[in-house]
Design a protein that fits this description.
five-stranded antiparallel beta sheet
Length: 317
């Protein structure tokens, strides 16, 4: 007679083994392989035993107390009245005005106000307002009594009182962020600098001027004399307080100038003038106006072997 066997893999011995049954043919297994009396945190391969579940259910200390109706009402506070009825506000058109008699919105009213219901027939809208002690009209929650649809008792919304109280507490609000603080936070104010190295300069006639631009950053005149120019880019509204062009000793007899060019008609003027290695702090028209002008530096009559190291412009915002 043929035999069929149910086999299981033995991962330790790396062999297949026959699964064992009891005399009734039921598979013999070790319950501890799939069940445990005390559940282990992080264990996903086992379930708690019936014994543990029974004992756990009998321990009241391990369960939360039932959330009561009173606790639920307290949790949402002013949205409920003293009897636990939810406060409602609602809108309806003037055709539904008669239906107000059929509603009873309960609210514990400490101080009452008269409410006036007006209808805007051309818009089909009903407006509900309460007259305050100061004579003004404010929106309100209402309490409608049977048979009194046009004049009813109401209270002003609690939320309005809380907002007004909070607004009056100075400590609950940050101080207004001032313009000066904003300027300081982004580093906009104070003394600023614009600079360039000598290689930023170019010959006024670049096709004939003999110039060496060094890898070290300076510019050297190979054959002179001629003039140099360099573009200057400063923020609109900056106020120039000082300008200076630097170079080697041989260049100190040469003159530099900070100039501006009127973009509409190329009319130009010098704003600061000095010898190389000397700063000029007396700036004509010191405020930069990028809407009308362009700005540049000139160095006049540089000669052979003169070197220009660079330029620095100091300004404030």
């Amino acid at each position: 007679m043929a035999e069929a066997a149910l086999m299981g893999w033995d991962a330790v011995a790396n062999v297949w083994r026959k699964l064992v049954c009891n005399p009734e043919g039921k598979l013999i297994i070790d319950p501890s392989e799939i069940l445990e009396d005390d559940p282990t945190d992080g264990e996903v391969g086992k379930a708690p035993t019936s014994n543990w579940a029974h004992d756990h259910a009998a321990l009241p200390a391990v369960h939360h107390a039932r959330y009561t109706d009173a606790e639920s009402r307290a949790a949402i506070g002013d949205l409920l009245d003293s009897s636990g009825v939810l406060i409602k506000s609602f809108n309806c058109n003037y055709y539904d005005l008669s239906l107000l008699q059929r509603f009873q919105l309960k609210y514990s009213v400490a101080s009452t106000r008269y409410v006036y219901i007006s209808t805007l027939l051309n818009q089909g809208v009903m407006a509900i307002t309460a007259r305050t002690s100061g004579g003004g009209l404010v929106p309100c929650f209402i309490q409608v009594h049977n048979g009194t649809a046009y004049q009813v008792v109401a209270t002003e919304p609690v939320v309005d009182t809380k907002i007004a109280t909070h607004a009056a507490i100075a400590a609950a609000h940050h101080a207004r962020y001032t313009d000066a603080e904003a300027v300081a936070a982004v580093g906009y104010g104070g003394t600023k600098y614009w600079s360039c190295s000598g290689v930023h300069f170019g010959g006024q006639n670049p096709d004939v001027n003999a110039i060496l631009r060094s890898a070290a950053g300076y510019l050297q005149i190979v054959t002179g004399p001629f003039n140099l120019v360099a573009h200057v880019s400063l923020p609109h509204g900056a106020v120039v307080t000082s300008a200076k062009v630097t170079g080697n000793a041989a260049s100190e007899t040469k003159t530099w100038a900070l100039c501006r060019l009127r973009l509409s008609d190329v009319d130009w003027a010098s704003l600061a003038v000095a010898n190389i290695n000397t700063a000029d702090t007396s700036i004509d028209v010191a405020t930069i106006d990028n809407s009308l002008y362009g700005y540049y530096l000139r160095v006049i009559d540089v000669a052979t072997a003169d070197r220009i190291y660079g330029a620095t412009i100091t300004y404030t915002l």
